[in-house]
Amino acid sequence: MIAPERRTRWDLTAAMVVAVLAVATVLWWTSDARRTTLTTAAGGAPGKTTSAAGSGLLPAALTEAWQAPSPATPIPLAADGTAVTGAGGLVAGRDLRSGAVRWSYRRDRPLCTVAAAFHQVVAVYQRSETCSEVTALGWADGRRGPQRTGPVESPTRLVAAGNQVAATGRRYLEVWRSDLVRTLAYGRLPTPVQPATQPRPDCVHDSMALSGGKLGGDRLAVVEQCPGERVRLTVQRSDPKEPDHPEVIFSTLLSGQQAQVIALSGERVAVALPDPARLAVLDGRGKEVAEYPLTVPNADLRIPPGGLADVTETPTEIYWFTGSATVALDTGDLRPRWTRAGSLGTGSEVAGRLLLPVPGALAVLDTTTGQQLRALPVDRGDYRGPVGTAGSGGVVLEQRGDTLVALR
pLDDT by residue (tens digit) across 209-222? Predict the structure, then answer.
């Protein structure tokens, strides 16, 4: 009779190695890493330009240099000689002047939104029913930075201020710091450990604004619709001691059934109300200290897309696009300084002037008075919707719906 084969120690070791490799292969095959492609830029950032807007001069004329699909960027994103686009599952860093792709980050998930925050590009991807996969990328080379996973609602928009960024949500919203660690969870918590810590989990969030850095402390303002009461404004710390224990500074009922928060500055917050159209300014305790009439239709003051008013902040002005007009607010007391009707967006400051999109042109305005000094003709073809703008390195970018267009 032939003696049965005996398994040696080496046989057992080999079997274990094969099993480990098999498990590792399965995990890799089903992992997000296999379905993620990152191509970083070779070399450093593009060289600085010294022409037109890049040298502190307004361009004499503008013509289209390039365009690319970018439905995931609500506004143009540009810095360090790079413009960023987002479409499908692809985030691309493009040469600002030519549009050539310098770096890219692709996943097999759709993008929810892409934004700029703390000198990085923040990309939010959809997973199942939520916008829960978040990755920070370097502007110049696309190198991957901090990442996080969390149950952010779909759809969502991001708004950055200082060292923080907030993700909007109708029932639940979050604030993250620059390492993408959550500093605030507010609303109906997806998996509440202590539900009683949330002051109003049954309310709907109509709009929000975040402050930090030069315009004030770290605060979050939320306009809420709560069952059985008028519209409510709640202002709270955006970095409480415990993320799921909101620290409310004040919460007050407003005189109306609808409102949108426009801006926070210092201890003040500005809220737009319809019937009649007006801008109410409240102090740090929630007391109304001023009210200004607005020459815009009530339809402009409905709930803003994504819960964010279309606002651009500069060191000297806050520009708010209502939907039919641009209103310049003082950064100190938030009073309206001037209104330009018939505009298409907030505009962007270039060489000390405001380039404001209007039908068929970019109007050049005095930032203090709103007076038009001249206009730069722009051919937008059949596009008639809102236009987001940004100026960088001698290039003016326009976000026309789902398309980013560069003008030189």
Answer: 999 755 557 999 99
